[in-house]
Amino acid sequence: MADRDILPGSPWCSYCTRPAVILERECNVRLCDDHLVTDLEGRVRTYMLGKRFVSPGDHIAVALSGGKDSSALLLVLHQLKATLPGITLTAVTVDEGIAGYREETIDAATKLAARLGVPHQTVSFAGLFGEDLDSILRRSQGRPCTVCGVLRRRALEIAANDAGATKIATGHNLDDEAQSVLMNVLRGDKDRLMRVSTPGDPTSFIPRIKPLSTVTEKEVVTYLLVRGFFRDLPECPYASGALRHEIKGILTDLEFKWPGTCRALIRSRDSMRRTTAAQDDTAGRCHTCRMCGGPSRGEVCRVCTLLSYQKT
Ligand code: SF4
Hints:
Elements: E1 22-24, E2 29-31, H1 33-50, E3 59-63, H2 68-80, E4 88-95, H3 102-116, E5 120-124, H4 125-129, H5 133-139, H6 144-163, E6 167-169, H7 174-187, H8 190-194, E7 208-209, H9 217-226, H10 243-257, H11 261-279, E8 287-288, E9 295-296, H12 302-311
Parallel strand pairs: 3-4, 3-6, 4-5, 6-7
Antiparallel strand pairs: 1-2, 8-9
The structure holds iron/sulfur cluster.
The site of iron/sulfur cluster has 9 residues, from helix 6.
């Protein structure tokens, strides 16, 4: 290694003489564009194979909103397709019906899938549930992201099923996972904190996987930039009112002052889950909703509960 590589504040990659594009603060390593791409894709591949998230012949429905995480997810899986055992991909976009936001992201999703040659299908809340999100929320007491999350999961399940998919991949990154841990702790929601959602999600008949859950948001954005796929898109107008938005700000500050905070939160959750799983082997079972026949944790699924509540 050249002397310049070990100087504090060096702008060079820790592994070669190219300029660094990212500083991994947790381990104080700098990576150039090539090393970032190789490291990130390699990490996702190792994670997916290590967790047995993919099997030979898997058909993966990739949830593609058109935003940065889902775009990076499709790019990484498309890149890894050659080295993973015989997987096929279908990109699935859910149009929730959010005016002034969804139009641009759907356009980005459509263009990305076309550029990669990945089959792409779009389903909408209006088509599946008879109403778009904006309209549901005008009459609803529910929190926008809760309503949206419940319906979007079902929409994805339906689209993946129609495509004949054997897995659903979502773009949750490491920051998202850490935010979920802290949100569940602050809400006192032990069930959600302990629930193992991949695979064996009790709200999905099709196993769900989160291939980017070891990748930070900063890495996702830098990956898109260096691969030339970054697009500056509007944020969902409902996002700023969500608890997640505030948690994100808190964790961003903590991660900056104490690198590794997010990863440590996830480790704590995983360790608690291992203990709980050993005590309760019924956790995470998927039932059939008696009203719609869809996946459910109880007798009636959250989609039916939510939609029948909306109509009363
Ligand atoms: Fe849905 Fe909330 Fe995400 Fe907007 S921010 S797309 S309402 S989950």
